[in-house]
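Reopening this ticket.

The earlier resolution said the output was attached, but the attachment link was broken on my side. Pasting everything inline this time so it's all in one place.
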Amino acid sequence: MKKSLLTILATGASLSLSAQSAFIINGTAENNLEGKIIYLYDAESRIPSDSTVVKEGKYNFKGNAEKPIFATIGYPEGRRMNSLASVILEKGTIQIANARGTGTPTNDKWNSYQESVKPFNDKIVELQQQAKGIERSDTAQMKALHAEYMEALNNLAKITKTYINNLDNIAPANLIGRYEAELEKAVVSASPVLKENAGFQRFLKHYEGTKRAAVGMKFTDLKMKDLNDKEVSLSDYVGKGKYVMIDFWASWCGSCRAEIPAVKAAYDKFKDKGFEVVGVSFDNIKDAWAKAVTQLGINWPQMSDLKRNQSAAAEVYGINGIPFTLLIDPNGVIVAQNLRGAKIEEVLSKYLK
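Inline output:
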């Protein structure tokens, strides 16, 4: 049995279990897993931290978790890891039931939430299936179905918002990003253990980024390289007396490529009236990026750090989907966001005559 990451996280150089942070996981497995190796891995990093063999239909893990963390138990099948259970590693004995951990405080809270929302999740799935069998022309039935669907969603949201207001543990970490008001409260009131959680930190960084991308905010600079490997910055173009649209895109993004003709039309129409476009690419392969620029006839400045979804732009501006645009005025203040299609020219025409 391999036991490295969890023990190191918990005890540094010491490999002994601490009574204050020791956990035990007991679970049962299906017959087809008898004799197979299964793994315990951090749900955030996806890195295996321990392994064991299923014997007589049972398995167990022992380790240390200095602070509660989300983890998954699973086994490899080809290139994928099949999940057996989701669990929160914390002090105590954790029993696996219905693919979830029970028997410790945070696991029980998470399990209770899952049980409370299950009827509404099941109802949503059922309604989605029903909708597939209804003719679009049957507006009365579609309207009734939609009303049921919204009721289920609202009930789900109500339970979830109540649940994630319990900020003394990490259980809300994977849900809190769905609701901005709750995230704002958590920034002030969350316990240290929640604030330190990687999932919460991810939502917080995204939230802070969306604030930087809000209309009325001064632009935040980015420094990357252009297609000639020259280091360039947004500030080379923004705040220089022109309206500048930052177009966040990628060669691999079909929706982005579909938007380029509209961007190009706006650029050609307004470039002589004080308008500039700067493309910030979420590519990770320079050749693919360069090829798309040529194929699409893009003739405005480009920059990228070639880190795909890990691009600095994603964190700085809270971007979790492209295409995305920001329109910035001559003083460097954001005046519009996420303009697409004909809306680009419509908005520009208000500023550039």
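Reporter confirms the inline version is readable. DSSP finds ten helices and 15 strands in the chain. Residues 1-18 have pLDDT under 50 and may be disordered.
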